[in-house]
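Dear H.,

Thanks for agreeing to be a second pair of eyes. The structure we're designing against is below in token form, covering all 583 positions.
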């Protein structure tokens, strides 16, 4: 695991105070996360040094390389490790930190306790126990998922990042490693199930559980899974959790009792709350909502976090005194009637109690959205754009999928400062600057220049987000500027030559995967609406033309259409392209 992550030690005296930083963060985000976690020591490997911010590299005394000489002595020499003395560790002691960012757009270190982790682990152990010899696949939520199988004496298999968004290779890896449990996002599962020419049944025949987490689960995904799995007996679990509250509830979506009520909603249920945990669906005045009435999801119980490290203001905003403390648990969610805890946490989700008395989560209630399973703060993106000198004001909204009504892209509305014209060049300049600040998935794919922003009438003069018109195809941006904010249309890749059949095949596949009408040779796949799951769809489009399959890593490493067309191994991978190019 240390080949894939950065291990850090906070500068605070807490038990087991460690947390992981992902290497796909930009240097700026890493620096902010390290500051938020009061990090004193960073433990990593030489291959990842280029990913670290300059402030970390400059402080060599607190940087430990596991592939360096005498790294253990170097760690002791930092002076950040006190001499070991036995300490009493209680339920409320800190187990680990996890990093997240929410509606403020600023990184936060979530302080999780031993009690919360224990309730989280044992709750699932009791409800969905491991069988002897199980092997759990691991690629997401390392902070706690890496411990589950090991605590029960079972094997944990780390899935390389290069496989996770390549359905054929992922399934082959699962099959070869005899993985019996795997946690994925619903959108990734949908991508796997929709990939063409894959024998899902054969590759899943040894599995016991697929666990869905991180996004709202639709019944469309559930039905596709049941069709693919057939009578194999493999189960599908919907797990509802958050960084601050860990696991909250589970639903076995393949349970026969669930099948009888699966027509109630287009969203799959999350089951009942775990023992000793409470879930409240409350209105804005903290009153209980009626059955089937949507409201804000609040949770309470022993699994709650202690707060955000060094941030009492944000902690007080999210952790509230529980007005229902001492009352019995809501009978509508079933289970034992435990006393309510003294505090409760607002998850930021909208949900309801269904007629069948199960919890259903329907999406985000605040400015944090899920874009292809990545948690993105609209406020963070907006704040970053507003920090640019040439921008007067910016607003960022999600772009919803027409069918599912779920966030699919982001759109940025920007107003230039002073006499600067809000034209194509201005938009592209701001877009390029933002790419240096944020990861690809958080950079808006649509940009709308504004002469002035709409504001609500009255004394508040707040920005009227509902008054911002939805973007159109002309607002989709690409680094070539061919699909741009002043209505220009992208051209078919002239630079590759219209007579080049290989380019034509690739162009058609790109446009089909991206659901667009045109693309330029210099367009970046990820910046004209592409993402890891669509990369898998693109591979499927291209694979249907040949006899073998292309790893998405080729698409990632050759982000431009022109670069992919010139890949030296293309003719071996796609015979149709090679033959077409010969004419």
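And this is the sequence the design step returned. I haven't edited it by hand at all.
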């Amino acid at each position: 695991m240390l080949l894939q992550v950065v291990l850090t030690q906070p500068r605070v005296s807490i038990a087991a105070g460690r947390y992981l930083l992902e290497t796909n963060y930009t240097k700026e985000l890493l620096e902010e996360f390290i500051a938020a976690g009061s990090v004193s020591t960073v433990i990593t490997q030489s291959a990842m040094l280029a990913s670290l911010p300059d402030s970390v590299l400059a402080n060599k005394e607190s940087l430990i390389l596991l592939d360096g000489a005498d790294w253990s002595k170097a760690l002791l020499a930092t002076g950040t490790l006190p001499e070991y003395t036995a300490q009493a560790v209680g339920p409320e002691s800190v187990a680990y930190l996890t990093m997240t960012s929410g509606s403020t757009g600023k990184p936060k270190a979530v302080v999780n306790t031993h009690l919360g982790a224990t309730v989280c682990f044992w709750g699932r152990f009791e409800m969905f126990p491991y069988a002897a010899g199980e092997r759990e696949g691991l690629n997401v939520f390392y902070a706690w998922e890496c411990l589950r199988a090991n605590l029960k004496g079972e094997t944990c298999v780390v899935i390389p990042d290069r496989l996770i968004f390549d359905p054929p290779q992922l399934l082959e890896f699962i099959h070869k490693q005899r993985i019996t449990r795997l946690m994925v996002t619903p959108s990734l599962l949908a991508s796997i199930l929709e990939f063409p020419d894959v024998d899902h049944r054969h590759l899943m025949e040894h599995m016991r559980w697929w666990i869905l987490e991180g996004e709202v689960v639709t019944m469309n995904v559930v039905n596709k899974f049941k069709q693919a799995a057939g009578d194999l007996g493999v189960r599908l679990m919907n797990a509802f959790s958050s960084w601050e509250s860990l696991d909250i509830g589970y639903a076995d979506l393949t349970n026969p009792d669930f099948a009888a009520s699966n027509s109630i909603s287009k969203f799959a249920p999350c089951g009942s709350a775990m023992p000793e945990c409470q879930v409240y669906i409350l209105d804005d005045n903290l009153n209980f909502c009626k059955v089937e009435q949507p409201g804000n999801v609040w949770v309470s119980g022993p699994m709650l976090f202690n707060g955000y490290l060094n941030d009492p203001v944000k902690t007080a905003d999210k952790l509230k005194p529980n007005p229902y403390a001492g009352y019995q648990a809501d009978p509508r969610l079933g289970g034992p009637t435990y006393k309510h805890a003294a505090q409760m946490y607002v998850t930021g989700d909208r949900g309801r109690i269904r007629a069948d008395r199960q919890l259903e989560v329907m999406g985000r209630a605040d400015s944090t959205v899920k874009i292809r399973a990545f948690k993105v703060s609209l406020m963070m993106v907006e704040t970053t754009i507003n920090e640019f000198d040439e921008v007067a004001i910016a607003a960022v909204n999600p772009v919803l999928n027409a069918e599912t009504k779920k966030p699919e892209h982001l759109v940025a509305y920007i107003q230039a400062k002073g006499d600067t014209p809000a034209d194509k060049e201005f938009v592209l300049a701001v877009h390029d600057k933002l790419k240096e600040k944020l990861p690809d998935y958080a950079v808006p794919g649509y940009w709308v220049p504004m002469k002035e922003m709409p504001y609500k009438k009255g004394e508040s003069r707040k920005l009227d987000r509902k008054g911002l018109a939805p973007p159109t195809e002309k607002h989709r941006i690409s680094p070539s500027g061919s699909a741009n904010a002043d209505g220009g249309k992208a051209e078919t890749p002239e630079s590759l030559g219209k007579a080049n059949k290989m380019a034509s095949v690739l162009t058609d596949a790109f446009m089909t995967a991206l659901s667009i009408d045109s693309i330029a040779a210099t367009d970046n796949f990820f910046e004209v609406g592409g993402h890891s799951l669509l990369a898998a769809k693109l591979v499927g489009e291209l694979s249907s033309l040949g006899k073998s399959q292309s790893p998405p890593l080729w698409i990632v490493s050759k982000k431009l259409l022109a670069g992919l067309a010139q890949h030296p191994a293309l003719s071996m991978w796609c015979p149709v392209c090679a033959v077409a190019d010969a004419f």
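Two observations from my side: Residues 26 and 436 are 8 Å apart (CA to CA). The two ends are 48 Å apart (CA to CA).

Warmly,
E.
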